[in-house]
Every structure is written in C-alpha cells, then in structure tokens.
Amino acid sequence: MSDIATFQQVQKRYARGVLALQDVSLGVPKGEFNFLTGPSGAGKTTFLRLLFGEERPTGGELVVLGHDMRRLRSRKLPGLRRRIGVIFQNFRLLSGRTVEENLDVALRVRGLDREQRRQRVAAILRIVELTHRSGAYPEELSGGEQQRVAIARAISGDPELLLADEPTGNLDPELSLKIMNLLRQIAARGTTVLVATHDYAMVRRIQARVIHIEKGRVVVK
Amino acid sequence: MGNLGYYLREGFAGLRRSGSGAAGAVLTVTLSLLVIGVVLLVVHNLLLAVEEARAEVRMEVYVSDEVAAEELAPLETRVAAVPGVDNVEFVSRERALGELREMLGEDEYLLSEVEENPLPASFRLTLDPEHLSDDKLAETAGHLEAVPGVSRVSYGREWVESLTEIVRLAGLIGAAIGGVLVLASILVVGNAVALGVYHRREEIAILKVVGAPPGFIRRPFVVEGFLVGVLGGGIGVGLLYLFYRLTGPLLGAEAFLPLEWWAALVGVGALVGLVGSFFAAAKHIRRAK
C-alpha cells in the first residue's frame, strides 16, 4: 500500500444534480509530485475537495490516508485534516493576524507547545524565505508573499499530503515558477503533492505525473 | 488547558477585528439594557415611594370618655404592651383641639360655635416595620380595640390597602413589560452576535481546513460574545445611571437600581452574548464543512 489515496469508480454528484466527477479510478502514490490538469469546470477542484473531506463522494470508494471518505465521521475530519495541507488560489489567510500568528494557530491546533511552535515557525519561514515578514499582516503582503505564507501554513504541520488548487493562478510567471519549485522541493522531502493548474506551459516545463480531468472523467498520463 | 490563554486573547482580539460587527452587537446590548433599565428604575422607585408611605402610617387609639385621668397611665402601659407597637405618644383633648385649629387654618371660625371640646384624647402609635403589612395592621388594630378603655382605632385602612394594590399593579405591569423587553432583547442581541459571527465565517472555514476541532474554533467566539455582553451591559448601566442623575430629580426618583438588579442585567447580557455566539459559531462551523 504505497498509495496515499485510492479512488475506485468514485462519483460526485452535487445536490442540484450536476455530475462533477464520474468513474474515477486511480491511486495517488506516496511521495510524488503530481499535476492535476484540465479546463475550468472539468472537476479539478471537486477532485481536491474530495481528498480533504470538504465534499464526500456520492458513489464508489475513496480512501484517503486509510480513511473511507464516504463513511468518515465528521468528528474524525479535523484529525485527518491535520495530516493534509491545503493551498488555495486566493490564499485564504486569516486577516487581522500576522504571518507568524497564521502559522502559529495551525501548529497550536496540532497540539505543539509554545517552544516547539516558535522553532517550527522560524524554520518554516526560512524555507519560504519570509523570516523578515513574520510580523506583517496578510493585507501588507504582495500576492507572492501571501501565497508563500499559505504554503508555509500548509506544510507547517508536516503533512503527508499537500493539495494546491491553482496556487499560481494569481501570480506572474516568474513567481509562479518559484512557487512551483518550492512545491517540488516539498515533494522531494517525501510529501505527496497534488497541484491543480491549467498552466500547461508550467506543466510542460516540469517533469511530473499528470492527472488530467476532462468533463468529470480522469485520464492518467 | 494550554489553550485557555489563546481563547481569551483571541476573544479580545476578535472584538477588535470584528470592528463594526462587534460594535453593533455591543450597541444592541447597550440599548436593550437601557430600555429595560428605565422600566426597572420606574418600578423600583415607585415601590420605594410606597414603602416610605407605609412607614409613615400612624395608628390613632382613641380613649373612651369614661376613662378617668388617673387611669390614663395604666392604659398607656397596656397599649404599649400590644405586640407591634413601637412608640406611644399621648395626645390630650386640648392638644387634639389645637391640632384641629391649626389644620383648619382660615376656617378656624367653624369652631367658634363649639362650646365644649368634642374631641377625645388619644394615643398616637408608631409601629414596628414588620407590623406594617395590611394583615398585621388589621390584627394590631383588633388587639388594641380589645383593650378596655379604648373606644376606637383608626389608621386609614383604605389608604394603606390602596398602597398594596399599587404595589401589586406596578409589579404586574413591570413584570409584563420587563418580561417582553427581556425576551425581545434576548432575540435581538442573539441576532446581533450571530451577525458578527456570520461576518467572520471565512475565518471559521479557514480554521476548519487547517484541521481545528469545533471547540477550538468556537471558544474564542464564545469569549467574544461574553465580552460583548459585559461591555454592552457596562455601557448600558453607565448610561442608565447618567439618565437617572439627569432626570431623577425632575421625576422624583430617589434611588438608582440596587446592585443586584443591574448586576443581573449585565449578567443576562453576558449570558445572551455567550449563548448567542456559541450557537452562531456552531452553526457556521457545521456549514463550513
């Protein structure tokens, strides 16, 4: 079992009858960097949301980090989420809290004590090269900096799975490449990384496994 | 409880961050409390006035004409021995006439035709405070009438009993208006707090994504709701006091609400803020998935 997530004929139909994903069967191998590609509305976001339990499959079987996602109790969800890092296109940082506080809260949730948190925050800020911005508020940061904070938060808890939904969608090409390289470094350390993007130029530049979705169906390349 | 400090800090910080949302909730608590407070203030002062009027009650024990002058002293002793009697003051026939003259003022001439003093002597009694209720007054009057040598006892029974009626009515009306206001305030404050939480649902959603358990997300909001209640309540009581100081002398109000009353008001505000934010946060935590 070297797959971190396994899809078996997974289907997701939304309440209003829209079929977002159908007949998805694949395994996401551990410790790899993967792209999730496809046109807008193809189902990339749904695919990611199923993985971190924001949505539940309506058919088939999905196992994430050993949890059957159709039967997972909602009180078990926070525990699973602490093993998964999620990065959004719009960053989703806590406004009104500094960079440091944004990272600190994610570690506090994981039960780290004050000294552990302080050390870990310092280490993570070094990785994303934001040590000098630790006291800044998200509103004061550039888009690229905000995204690096979001990445820092997502990896702060040393997740087994890192999901990124269009993480470079709001960034210029040069910054995008920098962010993408950062995510690849994270994958190189053993974290499974799944990056949804429709930046095909980027996908061509980087050697990685590509999961392509079109009209709710998956084609693994 | 390593996170207690965090919950408290975040509760305070949340108050700051919510800005207008929190301010709206605080203002709602303040205004609700002010309205309820004014009603309570009126009722409280009315009750005080009635209590004062009752304390002024004097019982007049008239001495029968047959009682000889030397029998007055033993009679006074017997009257003073009746339970509930506090102080006894003898009013002679002459003094009674003098008082009547004084009362009549310009109409004193009415007495010019009277040849003989028609007024009886009496004992004027003050009563122990615990003997001032309607029942006790009637009972004491009964005891006094049974004393030989006493012809009649009077204390303005109807007037006293109308005071009781005022108290009963004021209590009833106060409770009805107060009850409706408290209920309405609970709903309004609850909604204001919930609105504040609603504005910060993204924060809740983010914390959920990070893997925070519901209690961890909720507790700072509960602290914040409590603070909203205390803050709004405090300001409300402050304004109520100001209102009392400014208008009290004009309206004849003599006392501010007792500590327990306004502390209870602030307490209710804090409780509503706390419970309101608890449920609002719980709802958004559920919704955010």
Task: Offer a concise description of the structure.
In chain A, 33% of the residues lie in helices and 27% in strands.
What does this structure look like?
The complex is a heterodimer of chains A (221) and B (289). Chain A is an alpha/beta fold. Chain A has helices at 44-51, 77-81, 99-109, 114-127, 143-156, 173-188, 200-205, and strands at 3-13, 19-29, 33-37, 59-64, 67-68, 84-87, 161-165, 192-197, 209-214, 217-220. Chain A is 33% helix and 27% strand. In chain A, helix 3 (99-109) packs across helix 4 (114-127) and helix 5 (143-156) packs parallel to helix 6 (173-188). Chain B is an alpha+beta fold and 289 residues long. Chain B contains nine helices and four strands; from the N terminus they run ααβαβαβαβαααα. A four-stranded antiparallel beta sheet of chain B has the order 2-3-1-4. Chain B is rod-shaped and about 100 Å long. Chain A binds chain B through residues 52-55, 75, 78-84, 86, 92-97, 105-106, 108-110, 113, 153, 157, and chain B through 2-3, 6, 13, 16-17, 202-203, 205-214, 216, 289.
Largest interface in this structure: A-B, 27 and 20 residues
What class, by secondary structure content of chain B? alpha+beta
SSE string of chain B, helix = H, strand = E? Answer: HHEHEHEHEHHHH
Number of strands of chain B: 4
Provide the number of structural domains of chain B: 2
Radius of gyration of chain A: 17 Å
> Which strands sit side by side, in order, in the main sheet of chain B?
2-3-1-4
Major sheet characteristics of chain B? 4 strands, antiparallel
